[in-house]
Design a protein that fits this description.
The complex is a heterodimer of chains A (562) and B (171). Chain A has 562 residues and is of the alpha/beta class. Chain A is 37% helix and 16% strand. Chain A is globular. Classes of the chains: A alpha/beta (562), B alpha+beta (171). The complex binds thiamine diphosphate (TPP). Thiamine diphosphate binds at residues 390-394, 417-420, 443-446, 469, 471, 473-477 of chain A.
Chain lengths: 562, 171
């Protein structure tokens, strides 16, 4: 179609809309269906980062979204480009990360004809997005994009897909509305909590003898860490956090009992078992956190605050349900403060458990213990350093021994457990905060799922400190096989790993290999001080297990290895 | 436990897919579903019947549906005073000897014959689901060739529905 004078194409409208949304960075990968859009990007000042695989683009956007709270933006082509991001969408959906993802699509006149690189992205992404759109009118583009950013970032955040038929990028329109109003009668998240319910929450707290606070990622999304700290300190309540709640409450605060769940601390899990009043702030209470529901907080009354009504009474019945923004809820709770509960005995018990059963491991001066490596890193790292993990044993060790004290400093794939998340997510986090220290903790398995993205690290000189904990195994699988499958290590041991130092070299990244416990302290110090990207490969004890562990089907109090 | 749920939806492409997708993913068993234009332009009204084990399941379902951007409102109206109707077309075998017997059933059910074939009749019935079921049972001995049912639609009587079923409002 020939453009008339003053007409704007769909692609131009799209880029205008991204500017309007103040998008700082886009991760993407071009292809046939999005060529018109990329042609337009060529002329624009939009910052576009070319990843080496679409999965890398979406995980990078997730990392960016996790640490900033802003929407991560992704552009991919149709068909295979779009199907390559499905894992990332599912990951962002379950971990509530705001994304706006543009997928290319074939021309509208051939949709449904099995055209080259056609894919039913609306159908494929329906269950793994908060919402999705297909552009059918060029003039709708500004409106749809505005809505998409609104939906992605408000309420319970999540990914939104916009499918772009190729002709919708090249066709032009004469007029676009000056001001766009959002009118979504079917999307009205409840932000303001019911005050009456919060008053009930306080009444129950005053009367409790064994109160406990459980903190999830909702507190981070609501940017409510300071309000939470005030609430907890006023009442002097013990706190446990979920994997994603990490950083919402300072891990080394005296009132913190640590992370709860499958690999949680003894003190946290026993508190969840024994409490008589559990207040849950922005957590889904999924099976990795609750273990067998028959034993989770069974002696307890439960108050549950969440912005997503679905989460309330989904897994655990809530006696006092509160739908709303957890930040607003905490602010009101801090206004109406009540009497302190009488719970000295309970506090003493928790503190004794914390002292008697800290996280532990058997030190060694022969083999490197991963926990030791992480302990040292924790000491060396800045307080607000961002820790990104992949998925596996190293992820749990990082949560235990490289725990965080500041909000939005822990980036991990918790709900979906996506191996390969780490490298690109660290890239996204470092792009978001070029001046912050970013540590990536990754296993030798997951490293090889997205290592092609190392290319961007050097291309953009991202000073990420990659700590590869090499146990020559799919460690977490190996652990389950050792404990549950009678040491039958079916396809989990990988003696023939590549030479990771050579990989680092090939990508132009400095590499150091560490294997001697006696030298690790000084070697790590030197490595961490290096300015620029560095791959620190630690050859760790291959048989090390993550403990404590609540095995599948067991109750939260039935921990092994405490 | 049978629940009647009504929902208003944006009449956008694929919206029915979104709604049934939510139910399928969460393993809800849909007994009947019926959708059409509502009194407002661009808005469809959906009535469906699900079989659930307990009230908590219904609450979960309505909450999940409400999360869909294109779903405007969802209500479980089972406990309300509702008018519930379904239309069925039942094609039944008949011959000259039993035709009159079949005709005899129609009046009490306010059913009608809408087609007469050589050896078949098509009977149309409008009523609550159990009434339709009852007529089908009576016709079975004659040999039923085909049944087409629209699925239940429902409307709450009067102008004000009681909010007793909408627990969400409490928190
Ligand atoms: C994409 C994907 N495939 C498979 C798994 C199952 N899985 C979970 S942990 C794990 C082992 C990870 O090994 P590695 O990356 O070496 O880390 P380690 O557990 O040794 O620290 C596997 C295979 C997964 N979570 N994600």
């Amino acid at each position: 179609m020939k453009l008339k004078e003053k007409q704007r194409t769909g692609a131009q409208l799209l880029i205008d809309a991204l500017k309007e949304e103040q998008v700082e960075i886009v991760f993407g990968y071009p292809g046939g269906a999005v060529l018109p859009l990329y042609d337009c990007i060529y002329d624009s000042d939009l910052r576009h980062i070319l990843t080496r695989h679409e999965q890398g683009a979406i995980h990078a956007a997730e990392g960016y979204a996790r640490v900033t709270g802003k929407a991560g933006v992704v552009i991919v082509t149709s068909g295979p480009g779009a199907t390559n991001i499905l894992t990332g969408l599912a990951d962002a959906m379950i971990d509530s990360l705001p994304l706006v993802v543009f997928t290319g699509q074939v021309n509208t006149n051939v949709i449904g004809s099995d055209a080259f690189q056609e894919g039913d992205l609306i159908g494929l992404t329906m269950p793994i997005t908060k919402h999705n759109y297909q552009i059918r009118n060029v003039a709708d583009i500004p409106q749809v994009i505005k809505e998409a950013f609104h939906i992605a970032t408000t309420g319970r955040p999540g990914p939104v897909v916009i499918d772009l038929p190729k002709d919708m990028m090249t066709n032009g329109v004469n007029e676009v509305p000056e001001k766009i109003e959002i009118h979504l009668p079917g999307y009205q998240p409840t932000l303001e909590p019911n005050k009456h319910q919060l008053e009930k929450l306080v009444k129950a707290l005053e009367q409790s003898e064994r109160p406990l606070v459980a903190v999830g990622a909702g507190v981070l999304h609501a940017k409510a860490s300071a309000a939470l700290l005030k609430f907890v300190e006023y009442y002097q309540l013990p706190v446990v956090y979920t994997l994603h709640g990490m950083g919402a409450f300072p891990a080394d605060h005296p009132l913190s009992l640590g992370m709860g769940g499958m690999h949680g601390t003894y003190a946290a899990n026993m508190a969840l078992y024994d409490c008589d009043y559990l207040m849950v702030f922005g957590a889904r209470l999924d099976d990795r956190f609750t273990a067998n529901l028959d034993h989770f907080a069974k002696k307890s009354k439960i108050a549950h605050i969440d912005i997503d009504p679905v989460e309330i009474s989904k897994n655990v019945y809530a006696d006092i349900p509160v739908v709303g923004d957890v930040g607003r809820a905490l602010n009101y709770l801090n206004e109406i403060v009540g009497k302190h509960p009488e719970c000295k005995e309970w506090m003493d018990l928790n503190m004794k458990r914390k002292k008697d059963h800290p996280l532990k491991y058997e030190p060694s001066d022969i083999v490197l213990k991963p926990q030791y490596v992480l302990e040292i890193l924790n000491r060396l790292a800045a307080k607000d350093a961002i820790v990104v993990t992949d998925v596996g044993q190293h992820q749990m060790w990082a949560a235990q021994f490289f725990a965080r004290n500041c909000p939005d400093t822990f980036v991990t794939s918790g709900g979906f457990g996506t191996m390969g998340f780490g490298i690109p997510a660290a890239i996204g986090a470092q792009f978001a905060y070029p001046d912050k220290e970013v540590y990536l903790i990754v296993g030798d398995g997951g490293f090889q799922m997205t290592l092609q993205e190392l290319a961007i690290i050097i291309e953009h000189k991202l000073p990420i400190r990659i700590v590869l904990l090499n146990n020559y195994a799919l460690g977490m699988v190996r652990q389950w096989q050792e404990l549950i499958y009678k040491e039958r290590y079916s396809h989990s041991l990988i003696p023939g790993q590549p030479d990771f130092m050579k990989i680092a070299e090939a990508y132009g990244i400095k590499g150091v290999r560490i294997s001697d416990p006696k030298q690790i302290e000084s070697q790590l110090k030197e490595a961490v001080a290096y300015e620029g990207p560095i791959l620190i490969e630690c050859i760790i004890a291959p048989k090390e297990l993550v403990y404590p562990m609540v095995q599948a089907g067991k109750g939260i109090h039935e921990m092994e290895g405490v | 436990m049978k629940r009647i749920i009504v929902a208003t939806l944006n009449n956008t492409a694929g919206v029915l897919n979104r709604v049934t997708g939510v139910m399928a993913r969460r393993r809800f068993n849909i007994e009947s579903i019926s959708v059409g234009h509502s009194e407002k332009e661009g808005i469809s009204r959906l009535t469906f019947i699900v079989n659930v084990e307990n009230e908590n399941q219904t609450e979960q379902l309505t909450k999940h549906l409400n999360k869909q951007v294109d779903v405007i409102k969802v209500l479980d109206i089972t406990e309300d005073d509702v008018v519930e109707r379904e239309l069925a077309l039942i094609k039944v075998s008949c011959n000259s000897t039993n035709r009159m017997e079949i005709f005899g059933f129609l009046d009490p059910f306010r059913a009608q014959v809408v087609d007469v074939g050589k050896d078949t009749l098509i009977i149309q019935i409008v009523g609550a689901q159990n009434k339709v079921d009852a007529l089908i049972d009576l016709l079975k001995p004659f040999g039923i060739r085909e049944i087409s049912r629209t699925g239940v639609i429902a409307s709450v009587r009067g102008t004000k529905r009681q909010e007793k079923t909408n627990k969400l409002l409490a928190y």
